[in-house]
Amino acid sequence: MSKIIIEARDLIKTYQVGDMEVRALAGINLKILEGEFVAIMGASGSGKSTFMNLIGCLDQPTSGDYFLDSVLTSKLDKNQYAEIRNQKIGFVFQGFNLLSRTTALENVELPLMYDRHHRIKDPRKKGVEVLERVGLGDRMDHFPNQLSGGQQQRVAIARALVNEPSLILADEPTGNLDSKTSVEVFALFQQLNSEGITIVLVTHERDYANFAKRIVELKDGKIIRDRIIDKPLIASEEMEKLKSVEVNQEI
Amino acid sequence: MKFKSIITAAIKSILKSRMRSLLTALGIIIGVAAVIVMVSIGEGAQQQVQEQIASLGSNLIIIFPGASNSGGVNRGAGSFNRFTMDDVNKIKDEATYIKYISPIVRAGGQVIGGVGNWNTSTQGVSPEYLDIRAWKLASGEFFTDKDVLSRAKVCVLGSEVKKNLFPNEDPIGSLVRIRNVPFKVIGVLEEKGQSAMGVNNDDLILAPWSSVLDRLTGGRYINFIQASATSLAQMPQAQAELPRIMREAHKIQPGEDDDFTIRNQADLADAATATTKVLTLLLGSVAGVSLIVGGIGIMNIMLVSVTERTREIGIRLSIGARATDILVQFLTEAIMLSLSGGLIGIFLAFAMGYILNNYTAQPAVIKPAIIFISFAFSGAVGVFFGFYPARKAANLNPIDALRYE
Ligand SMILES: Nc1ncnc2c1ncn2[C@@H]1O[C@H](COP(=O)(O)OP(=O)(O)O)[C@@H](O)[C@H]1O
Ligand SMILES: [Mg+2]
Asked: Among B152, B275, B323, B378, whose CB has the most other CB atoms within 10 angstroms?
């Protein structure tokens, strides 16, 4: 049996907005094993982003325990949190979050600059390597504003990969992309997952969720459904279909 | 993060908004340039004063009657402690470290001759006086020991006296009447210009001390004594032996106070430079304030920059930057900005110093120390005023920073 990589025990997150207390997460219990590909679904405001931020060590729960790689994160200090973000997790955002006026390659190398252990000896070489892996070998010196949305998201994925994390988290990674590019991005995630990287991503489109091996649904800060997909769709095959549709339309 | 990548990141970020960086650094540029120029003007003034005092004569020692606590002022006519030629002669005989010595006998009054009359000071001195003061003759010659012995009625005119009494002719050989006593002009002194102490060394007449005592003042008292030490290095020895000789001459018992005061050129120089030092300090501090204002400008811009770059900070935090990484990044930017401002300021100061020295009467002496100090100070300004914005950036929460619009 595979190792548990994420374990949430009764995670609660409340926000104080003026006099009101907003309960974004109302007790989440979830285990995710190494090698899984999980899609988190739910309506807007159901707490998906809040949950992702917690398991991405970008934020801390109001109460409850979160174990990452069997380490209880609430016992860690700010610097150890930073180190986890740097070493263990690659985070992909809906809005790409690339540094502007900084080339694709420099963006990708950025996490390596904050690696105190200098595990990767040649940042430049590694940066080129991951950019090639996401299919952007010919766009390395482009600035974000010279790239399409899909390309920018692939740069962001390359940046998430550069420190060789075991876990990639993505909060609506295709939210800003058209359907064709979205499928391409999912194909990339499927490929990375097949290489052994655990992937947890948020999407609110059921079509895309079917690319995952497991779907977890949230509502009002609670898990209402958690199921395994027996036969996930294969994104690369869907791409071929889309292409043939295009060809048919052209004819 | 490695040191090199910190620096390159800071340079990149500064160059991203060139105009703003330049305007920010402008405060420091002006501040540093102002500090250097102001202090250098002060130094220039100080050096001018010192040069003027040096022109008093090398190794000059002045002996006044009266105890030093009475300000070197004569205690009164007829009192025992006024100086006579006996004091001068005793020093001449016994002192080992005194090279030249001269009494000064002052006689004010009207001088008539040439084209009219002129009120000036006539001083009775010995022939060595010219060497003591390191003065030179413009024409003619100085009187000799023979003139002193014979109490010759000869005199040497200061350039100002010559200008007033003999504007268009050579006075050598002419007669001038000092308090109605005719003296023959045998020489004219070179013009020396206003001295540091405000004494006009050109408006005087020099004559043998014996002649002045005998024919003008009457009596045997001299006003004070000027001497020069054998060398600058032997000033301390000279100043040590003089009191002994003078106390002996005046028969002062052990335990009694001196009835004379000895001053050297350094004492005079100290008094004069003290004033210009205060001036330098004042100019420097005023300019220093502008440097601090420049620092506040940097803080202002860095604060704006932190707000503007909140998302960037969020991105960096989300990929694993620590708070210290962010702190170091912003602090480095602030320091680089202020140091490069300091560097440009130094160049600007040199340019202004060049203009002052070559096109104005006000000299500026730029010393390495002030360059170093103001450069270090500009760095300190960067640290001091960069710290608050940098800490503000470092303490941001990654989620809040990422969500910032
Ligand atoms: N920083 C915040 N301050 C206050 N309320 C918040 C904050 N972040 C999220 N919320 C609230 O928490 C709930 C869950 O939000 P979120 O996790 O962003 O939902 P989702 O990503 O599923 O759309 C929402 O009601 C939202 O308004
Ligand atoms: Mg969301």
From this structure: B378
